[in-house]
Amino acid sequence: MAKQPDIQTLPGTELFEGFDLGTGHCAVVGLQWGDEGKGKIVDLFARKYDLIVRYNGGANAGHSVQVGADRYALHLIPSGILYPDKFNVIGNGVVIDPVVLIKEIEGLRQRSVEVAANLRISNRAHVVLPYHHLQDQLYESALSILRGDGEKIGTTGRGIGPCYADKALRSTAIRVGELADADQLASKLQLIVTIKNAQLAALAQQCGQDFEPFDADQLCEQYTQHGRTLSQHVCDTTRLLHESMDAGKQVLFEGANATLLDVDHGTYPFVTSSNCSTLGIYAGAGVPGSTVGATVGVMKAYSTRVGGGPMPTELHDTVGQRIRDVGREYGTTTGRPRRCGWLDLVAVRYTAKLNGVNNICLMLLDVLAGHEILKVCVGYRYAGGEVDAFPADAGTLEAVEPIYEEMAGFDQEVTECREFDQLPPQARAYVEKIEQHVGVPVGMISVGPRRDQVIVR
Ligand code: GDP
Ligand code: IMO
Ligand code: MG
Q1: Cα(190)–Cα(408) distance, integer angstroms
Q2: 22 has pLDDT over 80
Q3: What is the CA radius of gyration of the chain?
Q4: Residue 128 has pLDDT above 80, yes or no
Q5: What is the mean pLDDT of residues 181-206?
Q6: What pLDDT, in 10s, does the model give residues 31-42?
Q7: 362 lines ligand 1 (CB under 6 A)
Q8: Average pLDDT of the residues in 136-159
Q9: 93 alpha carbon, distance to own chain's centre
Q10: Contacts from 392-396 at CB under 8 Å and sequence distance 24+?
């Protein structure tokens, strides 16, 4: 029996109590290009909820939770897992790589975190298989060869796009529930692997790469075994959610990836393949549109992006490098350096509106300490005019020039501030500028990775 660390008694978790979460179920969503600190916020808020639910994405996500000196990097498991008395649900809208999930479960158990009946996996979720990884990598290589590196999406290489594509194609998709029936899985994989081998061999040849065909029998054996390993967690999570909500349980929906990566509403085609905004909750968890009572938007005090695509406020200079160094802006999933830039309020106002955000958690404010001047983008210059709307088209966004407002920076370290009034006046003015431009209150400010490093207003 795993010994659960006594994490609930650590200081800090009570600090969010003053934050207005409204009544009912709550959604936490990223307002930029990911890595805003959703993991920290979900871990903090989870204390108040009974179920924590992932509804989109897959192991492309990397959510870090820091408890004291201990850091946990979660990819598929919801960030409520550190509380043993909560249900953590991986909903039907998630694409699950069983190899990654099993490794994640084992890693947590080794660190004495209980992962048992408290983890539930939807039998309707789709399975990421090894050919999805290769397909992801070969598509990126082909794009790079045919159109240049700039046209690559810069995916995490986790097979996310190909798996969602198969979900939409239907006949070449496998759902978690199907791992339980070895005979049916075997015949389905025979068909799928025949198609995949033909496609991937041609693509590999185009890319000048060697190709080792996949073996359907071998895959079937491996994935039925993975299915057996995960079977204790697999259930109809849609029904579980309905019954739990009917019984008065409170649900926290954890967005993965972020709104500007949403397949419909992000900077398409430089996006991921799911609806990462709150719009994805209903399809991805199987709950009605009226479910969410409060929507909390999580944003950084500046901008970051991993992979390709437009980012109007990106900095290629020492200021950008300083943000990267101080903010430790290297990917939780791939370790790639994140592109860094000034805060883009045009983008955040758009995503706050799209998600119906009631309250904002402003993260990593501490990282901006020591800059003489802080710039915030409040509009774009485009084709000789000025626009304040976020363009629908990546080409237009690529062509815009940011219009900045300059604000005085702050020298003082803020990592030990716990009250809004303890922040330097320039930092307070920065927060107020965000509220004014986005039109949503900033109810929480994070000044360090730990649970206790928050200011509730
Ligand atoms: P997520 O994907 O949105 O959950 O974010 P990530 O976990 O990928 O990236 C956020 C990073 O910032 C993590 O390393 C967190 O530990 C860290 N972090 C969160 N809040 C703060 C903060 O207020 N200040 C600092 N310095 N780091 C933070
Ligand atoms: P969290 O949940 C940052 C980006 C990738 C790439 C694009 C498509 O940690 O905020 P994919 O592998 O999904 O097909 O890649 O989306 N991306 C993320 N960037 N944080 C994430 O998740 C991301 N999930 C996907 O870098 O540009
Ligand atoms: Mg992340």
Answers
A1: 63
A2: no
A3: 22
A4: yes
A5: 97
A6: 999 999 999 999
A7: no
A8: 91
A9: 13
A10: 394/267, 394/268, 394/269, 394/270, 394/309, 394/310
pLDDT higher than 70, residue 6: no
Please give the helix or strand (H or E) that residue 325 lies within, else none: helix 318-326
pLDDT score of 197 more than 70: yes
pLDDT at 148: 81
CA–CA gap between residue 315 and residue 113 (Å, rounded): 40
Among 163, 92, 96, smallest CA distance to 131 is for 163
Ligand 3 centre to CA of 75 (Å) is 8
* Residue from 272, 294, 275, 293 nearest 285 by CA: 275
Question: How many residues in total does the chain contain?
Answer: 457
- Residue bearing tokens 């010994």: 3
- Write the pLDDT tens digit of every residue in 304-349: 999 999 999 999 999 999 999 999 999 877 788 999 999 999 999 9
DSSP, residue by residue, 136-203: HHHHHHHHHHHH-GGG-----SSSHHHHHHHHHH-TT--BGGGGG-HHHHHHHHHHHHHHHHHHHHHH
> CA angle 454-331-8, nearest 5°?
35
Residue 5 has pLDDT above 80, yes or no: no
What is the dihedral angle through the alpha carbons of 442, 50, 251, 29, rounded to the nearest 10 degrees? 40
- Match 């629908």 to its residue by tokens: 392
Q: Are 13 and 80 in contact (CB under 8 A)?
A: no
Any idea what DSSP says for residue 287? Answer: -
Which domains can be identified in the chain, with CATH numbers? 24-126+233-297 (3.40.440.10), 127-229 (1.10.300.10), 299-456 (3.90.170.10)
Contact (CB, 8 A) for 355 and 295: yes
281-300 confidence digits (pLDDT tens)? 999 999 999 999 999 999 99
> Which residue has the CA at smallest separation from atom 14 of ligand 1?
64
Phi, psi of 189 (to 5 degrees): -65, -35
Residue carrying structure tokens 């008694």:
9
- Ligand 2 surroundings by CB, under 6 angstroms: 30, 33-35, 60-63, 153-156, 158, 160-161, 256-258, 261, 272-273, 306-307, 332
**Can you tell me the distance from the alpha carbon of 183 to that of 164, in angstroms, rounded to the nearest whole number?**
24
* Cβ 371 vs Cβ 343: under 8 Å: no
> Residue 12 has what pLDDT?
54
* Nearest ligand (C-alpha, residue 258): 2
Angle 6-7-9 from CA coordinates, rounded to 5°? 80
